[in-house]
C-alpha cells in the first residue's frame, strides 16, 4: 500500500519507504545541524523501543521521528514525550479509536482490563543541563497493520484492527503533526492535558525505576512528567521507569 505523503506540516518531511529506524536517521540529521524535520517511513527494518528493545514496524504503520531544538533546560525534555502521547491519543480518538495513556509513553486501548498497545514513543535528547541541543521524539503508531504482523506477546492493536477498516494515513499523520506542533508550544499545558487521557491515575502501579521498584497508587503526574505514587507511607515522584498497572 503506497502512501501519498503530501503533508502540509509545520515541519519539513523526509519520507522513506523503508529505513532501519527513523530515530536513527533523525540523529544523523541532528548531527548535521537540522531542525524542525520529521522523518517518516512506511516500514522500519530496525525499529527500536526504550532500553534498546525491538519495535516491530511492518509496512502500513506510521513510524516517524520529530527533530526539534526547544529553548528549554534538558530537565524539561520529558514533557515532550507526554505531549507526543497526548497528540497521538487525540489523533486516535478523532478517527474513532478510544485510546488512553499509560505513564509515561504508551498509548493503549483498554477493554475489560485488557490493555492493547497502539502507540509507542521513544524520546532521545542531547545538550547540557541548562540548554537542550536537540530532542527527537519517535512515535510509532500501529495504523494499518494486522495484529498478526506484530509481536503477540506485546498484546498489540492497531487503528485498522480497532476500526475494522484502514485509516487514511496521510490525514492521520497530518493531524498528529498539527496536534504535536500545538502542544509543544506549551509543554506545561500539555502535561496538564495528559491527565485527561491517563489510564494510570487512580490505579495501583508497580514501577521499575533505575533506583528500584516503587509500588502504590498513582495519584498524579507533575511537570515535566514525573509520576506521583502514594506508597501508603509516602508520596514518591518517579521520573523514569517501566510501569505496570496492577488493577
Ligand atoms: C516503546 O518502547 O514503546 C517505544 C517505541 C518507539 C517506536 C518509534 S517508531 C518511530 C521511531 N523509530 C524507532 O526506531 N523507534 C521510534 P518500549 O516501551 O520499550 O516498548 C517496546 C516493547 O513493545 C517491545 O519489547 C515489545 O514487547 C512491544 N512492541 C514491539 N513492537 C510493537 C508494536 N508495533 N506494537 C505494540 N507493541 C510492540
From TrEMBL:
GO terms, molecular function: biotin--[biotin carboxyl-carrier protein] ligase activity
Ligase among keywords: yes
Domain of life per record: Archaea
Coiled coil ranges: none
GO BP term, pick one: regulation of DNA-templated transcription
Keywords: Ligase
Catalytic EC class: ligase
A GO CC term assigned to this protein in UniProt: cytoplasm
E.C. no: 6.3.4.15
Residue span(s) of domain BPL/LPL catalytic: 4-188
Protein name, per record: Biotin--[acetyl-CoA-carboxylase] ligase
Source species: Haloarcula limicola
Residue span relative to the full protein: 65 to 311 of 313
Amino acid at each position: 500500500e503506497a502512501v501519498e505523503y503530501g503533508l502540509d506540516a509545520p515541519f519539513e518531511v523526509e519520507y522513506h519507504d523503508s529505513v532501519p529506524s527513523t530515530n536513527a536517521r533523525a540523529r544523523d540529521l541532528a548531527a548535521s545541524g537540522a531542525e524542525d524535520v520529521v522523518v517518516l517511513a512506511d516500514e522500519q527494518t530496525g525499529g527500536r523501543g526504550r532500553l534498546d528493545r525491538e519495535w516491530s514496524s511492518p509496512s502500513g504503520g506510521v513510524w516517524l521521528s520529530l527533530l526539534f531544538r526547544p529553548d528549554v533546560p534538558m530537565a524539561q525534555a520529558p514533557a515532550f514525550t507526554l505531549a507526543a502521547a497526548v497528540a497521538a491519543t487525540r489523533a486516535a480518538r478523532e478517527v474513532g479509536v478510544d485510546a488512553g495513556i499509560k505513564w509515561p509513553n504508551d498509548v493503549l486501548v483498554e477493554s475489560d482490563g485488557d490493555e492493547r498497545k497502539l502507540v509507542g514513543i521513544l524520546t532521545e535528547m542531547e545538550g547540557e543541563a541548562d540548554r537542550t541541543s536537540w530532542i527527537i521524539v519517535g512515535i510509532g503508531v500501529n495504523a494499518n497493520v494486522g495484529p498478526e504482523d506484530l509481536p503477540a506477546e506485546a498484546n498489540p492493536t492497531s487503528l485498522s484492527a480497532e476500526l475494522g477498516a484502514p485509516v487514511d494515513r496521510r490525514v492521520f499523520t497530518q493531524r498528529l503533526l498539527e496536534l504535536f506542533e500545538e502542544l509543544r508550544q506549551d509543554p506545561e499545558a500539555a502535561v496538564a492535558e495528559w491527565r485527561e487521557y491517563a489510564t494510570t491515575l487512580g490505579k495501583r502501579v508497580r514501577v521499575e525505576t533505575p533506583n528500584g521498584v516503587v509500588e502504590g497508587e498513582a495519584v498524579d503526574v507533575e511537570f515535566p512528567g514525573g509520576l506521583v505514587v502514594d506508597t501508603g507511607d509516602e508520596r514518591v515522584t518517579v521520573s523514569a521507569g517501566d510501569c505496570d498497572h496492577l488493577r
